Each structure stands twice: as structure tokens, then as C-alpha cells.
Amino acid sequence: MAELLSPEIKACIGQSSPSIHVQVTRRDLRKYAVSTGQKAKKYLDGDVAPPLFHFGYAMEILPVDELRKDGIAEDKLIPELPLKRLMAGSSDTVYHRPICAGDQLVVTRKLKDLYEKEGRSGPLIFVVTEIVVETQAGEPVLNETTSLIAR
Amino acid sequence: MLNFDAITVGDALPCREHTANIVQLFMYNAAIWNPHRIHFDHAYATAEEGYPGIVLDGPLQGDWIGQVVTDWIGEDATLISFGYTNRRAAMLGETMTAGGKVEEKNEQTKEVKVSLYLQNGEGDVTIPGHAVVRFT
Fold first, then answer.
1. A90–B84 CB contact, under 8 Å
2. Which domains does chain A have, with CATH numbers?
3. Is there a contact between A93 and B83 if contact means CB atoms under 8 Å apart?
4. Per-residue confidence of chain B (136 residues) as pLDDT tens digits?
5. Coil, helix or strand for A63?
6. For the domain with range B7-21+55-135, which CATH number is right: 3.10.129.10, 3.40.50.1000, 3.90.550.10, 3.50.50.60?
7. Which burial class, exposed, middle or buried, applies to B102 when counting CB atoms under 10 A from its CB (0-12, 13-18, 19+)?
8. Looking at the whole model, is its pTM more than 0.90?
């Protein structure tokens, strides 16, 4: 199998995106709870975040004219890959403490790994990233490892 | 009230159906700030990306199987870990059933491992998942 990942691309493994500082508002928690169809009162009242609430904090907020034709913001953490079609793979989160209304959080994304595999319909590149969420005081909140697949 | 001692490996977690409509999907993508057109632009999703319709977000489906666990434990246990895999796409309008099963029970740590699934009307699992909860 031909090597798809050049040394220049591989050298990006280990890099981080600039940390994002967020204040968790009850209003944001309530919007997320309603839109996902939560039933628990603590979620609907915006006291506590449901387990995947933090996903939105990994989304870049870019000016409209900087978005791609498909609407997606270019992900600056991931180097340009020789395979272009990105698909969501898996997500695994370890929770240290719940996210609550009023929390001041620091969200950092890291590129953990890039590797290739021969799939049934051709070569695949796996992109493994980690989202680290901590309080401003440095208390761990959660770590989410996600994998994307480029084909 | 969910009691650790009463849980048995093989127990089914209460399942729930979800049928997102276009308004709910719009609100979800607004809440997480996801402007990907396959989630709101039917012409784009079908003509440009070849999907049969508007595509449900993977993490929204992931959230639905997360709710199987959080609704099951209530305040009686703590979520320690949760994961899911996007196996196949699901389209707006499909009715998806979220459920799960107790896989392991550790008497020492008082942790329970569950498997989770989201399946479509044909019975295909679109999103399998897993979680560990701890009782005190």
C-alpha cells in the first residue's frame, strides 16, 4: 500500500488548537436540552449539561464568508489530507465532573494521531483528536477522544 | 429508584423512540453551531452529497442513546464514561429507537457497564454505544 501520509502531515500529530474560554450559561444548556429532546428536569432547567453538550464547544465560530461551500468551517487542527471525504467515526468520553450552569471552562483540542488503513472500498485515513475540558482553575471536567475517517 | 443490588446482567434498559422534525434538527444545529448544509438544505444534501434526504447529525443520535443511560440512572448513579460509533447515516423523518442492555456488573467498584444502540425502522443499528455508571 502506498504511503498516503507524508512526514510533513505526520509531523502535525501532537499539535493543539488555541484554547477556547467559555462561560456555561443556563440558556445555552436549555437550548441544547430542548433540541435533543431531554426529559430530565435538571437538563431542561439548565442546571447541568447532558453528556454530549460540550460537543458544540469544539465548533469554530467563523465569519460566514470563511465557511466552505458545504457550510463547514475548515478545521485548522487537521492538516490537509490526500483523501477529502470526511466521515464521523467514533466518540469516547471520560467524565470527571458534570458541566453546570455558571462554569468557566477551558476547551482545548489536540491532534492525537493520524494513521492509514486499507478499507473494503479503498484506503482510509483515521484522524484521532481529543477534546480536553477543564475549569479555569485547572480541574479536569472531561476528555473526549473522537475519530474521523477520511476516504 | 434504581438499586445496584437489583441490577442483573442482561437487563434491558427502557427504550425510547425519537422522530426529529425539521424544527428540532434546526434548533439542534443552531445550539451546537453546526452550519453543515446536509442537516438543513435538502437540495444540497441530495444533489451535491448524494444522500436520500436531510441527514440527522451523528452526535444528536449519540445524545439519544446517552439519554437511555441518564434516564435509567436518574440521580442514583454517576456517568463515568460514554462512547458511540457512527455506523450508518439516518435521515430526517426516520423513527429511531434508542435502547440498551446491562453487560457487566462489578460488585467491588459498584460499576455497571451497559451496551447501547440506536436502530432505524428496518432494525439496522445506526449508532452502537457503551457506557459505564457508578453507584455509591
1. yes
2. 7-150 (3.10.129.10)
3. yes
4. 899 999 999 999 999 999 999 999 999 999 999 999 999 999 999 999 999 999 999 999 999 999 999 999 999 999 999 999 999 999 999 999 999 999 999 999 999 999 999 999 999 999 999 999 999 9
5. coil
6. 3.10.129.10
7. middle
8. yes
